[in-house]
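For this section, I looked closely at a protein sequence along with its fold in token form, which I now present.
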Amino acid sequence: MEPIRRDDKAGGGEQAARWNGPAGNAWVEAQDLVDALFAPLEELLVEAVPAGRGGRVLDVGCGTGGTTVALARRLGTEGRCVGVDISGTMVEAARARAAREDARASFVRADAQDHVFEPGVFDAVVSRFGVMFFEDPVRAFTNLRRAAKEGARLRFVVWRDIAENPFMTTAERAAAPFLPDLPKRRPDAPGQFALSDADRVRRLLEESGWGGIGIRPVDAACVLPEARLVPYFSRFGPVGLALPGTDERTRARIVDTVRAAFEPFVHGTEVRFTAACWQIDASASGG
């Protein structure tokens, strides 16, 4: 049975606007960097699916499709992976990737929180950093539970506490004197650290009908070339979104200041940091 390919309008909310604008464009333009950076976390998701056994897997917040294609390859010729993302820009990049790699993967542009998936068809639901942006997490995880077969596996990776991930906020802390209007981090609001509280995650999944919940910390060693550090922080995150609105002189001062702040992470030609995450597993069996 082929998956739905129809593209939703993906809603008109804040997240749709963000990921169908500069944020989505940045991920597409740097997809090779992002894929290499988070390869260890991709492996955690791929290993959740039995090799060569076929079946159907849903990749939530699939971005440019790196994990989706890897999962499709893992499933074998009898399987198929479906990627869903709110960003039309990233979904088009994902489709192009799957075509290049001749992967049994398909993609739909939609908000996984509300998209009408065919009920009870997926053997597994996975996500790498794709489930922290739901406006209503219970509604979203309930919707995903509805799409899963009885006994299906849920596995996703999210960031742990902001204090455990200093690399992720170095740019905004260093740039704050120049950019006083940077958005403030709001606990539990949709965003990078929305699911950093393990107890809250457990409650959300229980309320959404998932059982057998297991949560364990994962520390992934991430590396990027030093030569790509400035392009990285200049495009991603709050600073990356704010820089285009500054004048050239201010922009240069911000870049110099932020680059200096990253110095503790620089080791010769590499930038190294630890991604402090949760690996969350659950079952659609309710037990």
The chain has twelve helices and eight strands. The radius of gyration is 19 Å. Residues 1-6 have pLDDT under 50 and may be disordered. Residues 223 and 272 are 5 Å apart (CA to CA).
